[in-house]
Design brief:
This protein is an all-alpha fold and 85 residues long. The chain is 52% helix and 0% strand. The relative contact order is 0.18.
């Protein structure tokens, strides 16, 4: 999967899991800070992390959650984890 496709898929998951309205994967700014600008809390982030783990067969350490600040960072993290396999 290319980076653009990965970013769109992560956006889809976040939109779906957080039940965001008025945004599509194509219009979701991948640089938007999920905590500071979107206001998601640690429980939401945990939910998203669990879905991403299932989707990509990776393990996301809780210590790494602060790194997952936007869609672009999440996509890069997933790429890194997939390359470690």
């Amino acid at each position: 999967m290319d980076k653009e496709g990965l970013i769109l898929r992560v956006a889809e998951i976040i939109i779906s899991e957080l039940k965001l309205e008025d945004v599509t994967p194509q219009t979701f700014n991948p640089e938007l800070d999920l905590v500071d600008e979107l206001g998601i809390d640690s429980m939401d982030l945990t939910t998203v992390a669990l879905v991403l783990q299932d989707e990509y067969g990776i393990r996301i350490d809780e210590d790494d959650y602060p790194k997952l600040k936007n869609i672009k960072a999440i996509a890069e993290y997933i790429e890194m984890k997939l390359n470690e396999k």
